[in-house]
Amino acid sequence: MMIFFSLFSCNRDEVVIDVSNPIEISPNILFIIADDLGKDAINGFSEGNIKPSTPNIDAIRNSGLSFNNFWTYPTCSPTRASILTGKYGYRTGVKWAGDELDLSETSLQKYIKDQTNGNYATAIVGKWHLSGDNTAVNPEIFGLDYYSGIIRGAPQSYYNWQLTENGVSNVETEYVTKKITDLANDWIHQQDKPWFMWLAYNAPHTPFHVPPNEMHSQGNLPSFLSGMDPTPYYMAAIEAMDYQIGKLLDDMPLDERENTIIIFIGDNGSPNEVAQSPYTFFTAKGSLNQGGINTPMFISGKGVSRTGIDDNLIVSSDLFATISEIAGVSVNQIHDSKSFISLLTETVSIRDYQYSEKDDGINNLWTISNGDYKLIENANGSEQFYNLNNDPYEQNNLLNGNLITNEINAKSDLETELLNIRN
């Protein structure tokens, strides 16, 4: 039986929605994570002078929204855990690369499934890195329908790596970016209901390598050796990822593609070896400086009517509530996650503060910003305080001099909010 809803706009034009066909009202969700991709390594941002050729990622950005103040964590595992759970790292214990996510946590995929009565098929393909060194783990235990990919942080080689599926690992020799894309593509084509694909590339994470020639424009690169300039190899890996994203999108039937929303992010800043000005080796990946945690996020496709740059303060945990709402769950805020779905269609304010943290077992720090000022606190008592309007790349620690009244007030305000977040 077919059921129809009639909606009327202000000009009285009738809109008919067939709710017997879920795909008409439930968009497919393609969530793409690039591994170690900072603003300095992608088009659309002023940071960095050397940029890769990425027509497919550029098209995602140009047809939708580019987020200028998106904060992640300084390494991959806590960023992924924050998205998967909607919680800050200190709540889950995942605060650095290689930390393990407890099995008691409710994943985004399970939450969507439970709240929508199984309306969505869910999959994660690619990098997992939430189970330490345990390669026998099957991420499907967290409630997703399908997992296939790289359990640990990075492959030994892009042409010789461990592919894990159903908790079993086997050696793969096909170029990893292509293989991961093909696995995602195969799964998508098998679905007969709305789907949520979490596609986690390990590119452009080290090791530096030479992709197949047709996938990049960096020329005839020799095999990378220590002491060589890694930048062309890094750019080639980004271009190869873009090439495969294009293959994936081109292979979708037009109606399915038009019913898909695409979210593309970098999980943390660029590798230290290839960090570009205004970032440095010490203020890129692994740091709580902007170069380590202020990363690209582009969203376009189904339901996205705004274009251009959005300056809202967004954190990675916000993707939990946002993706849930896209999937039809009525949840504006949950755990440490605030949905920003409204930004896809209108200009509103989402957050007053954004937060991130770092605990690598030696250094324990956390940071907060209100968009104007940024405070970094260390468990050892040291602090850094910056005016991001005048000093966006954190060259001048205001605490090295005397604070004026408005700076004192701003610092006090940030300290108060930190107590609210961390207690």
From TrEMBL:
Keywords per UniProt: Calcium, Hydrolase, Metal-binding
Keyword Cell wall biogenesis/degradation listed: no
InterPro entries for the chain: Alkaline_phosphatase_core_sf, Sulfatase, Sulfatase_CS, Sulfatase_N
Gene Ontology molecular-function annotations: arylsulfatase activity; metal ion binding
Coiled-coil ranges per UniProt: none
Ranges of residues in domain Sulfatase N-terminal: 27-329
Record-linked Pfam families: Sulfatase (PF00884)
Keyword Disulfide bond in record: no
Top-level division of the source organism's lineage: Bacteria
PANTHER family documented for this protein: ARYLSULFATASE, ARYLSULFATASE FAMILY MEMBER
Family membership noted in the UniProt record: Belongs to the sulfatase family.
Protein name according to UniProt: Arylsulfatase A
